[in-house]
Amino acid sequence: MKSAASWIFVGTFGRVLECWDRETREYVAIKVVRSIRKYRDAAMIEIDVLNRLAENEKYRSLCVQIQRWFDYRNHICIVFEKLGPSLYDFLKRNRYQPFPVELVREFGRQLLESVAYMHELRLIHTDLKPENILLVSSEFIKVPSSKKSSQDEMHFKCLPKSSAIKLIDFGSTAFDNQEHNSIVSTRHYRAPEIILGLGWSFPCDIWSVGCILVELCSVRSLLTLLFFQH
């Protein structure tokens, strides 16, 4: 049995709850999907993808782990390990101060490894963005920031204690051999071939990775840097 503790995230698909598992005596995250056909279908795709990823032991350090799933009053509920905040949430809480380059480099290495692993299994994530990359731990440290107020007051920024990250949200994942939707990916991370209607495949994930790394270093999207800088 599980008892809800608090909301982690509320989105279009439904919500994610932080819960206490009375059997294992640990916190878990439960994704509760809205009782709507298209969201249920996406949830079943996600469960299929998560099970495929779990077949290889290497998966455990790259992507969020599914523990089990169940159908409750027509709501698909997926039980995951409890992780930390997303990279987007961390930036937001940190008043949009960029991550150090060394930390972004480590994020990039792990992100490319996880994407490469998915591609080996002929899977395309199609929705890579900072919101779908979670820190494994919520712990952080405070360090002096170069940003100062007009009174020359010292400011601080937060840095994660651990650089370990995991991918989440596989509801939009596509199999390489299936028919592809014409539009995928969130706009700021969408590859040019998708925008131009030229068809897409594995490289669209790599474009998204590049956009993410630029944003983590500059806290500005690649689109903003390319088209809206004076």
Automatic annotation (TrEMBL):
Pfam families: Pkinase
Keywords: ATP-binding, Kinase, Nucleotide-binding, Serine/threonine-protein kinase, Transferase
Domain Protein kinase span(s) in chain numbering: 2-230
Domain of life: Eukaryota
GO molecular function, one term: protein serine/threonine kinase activity
InterPro entries: CLK_kinases, Kinase-like_dom_sf, Prot_kinase_dom, Ser/Thr_kinase_AS
Protein name from the UniProt record: Protein kinase domain-containing protein
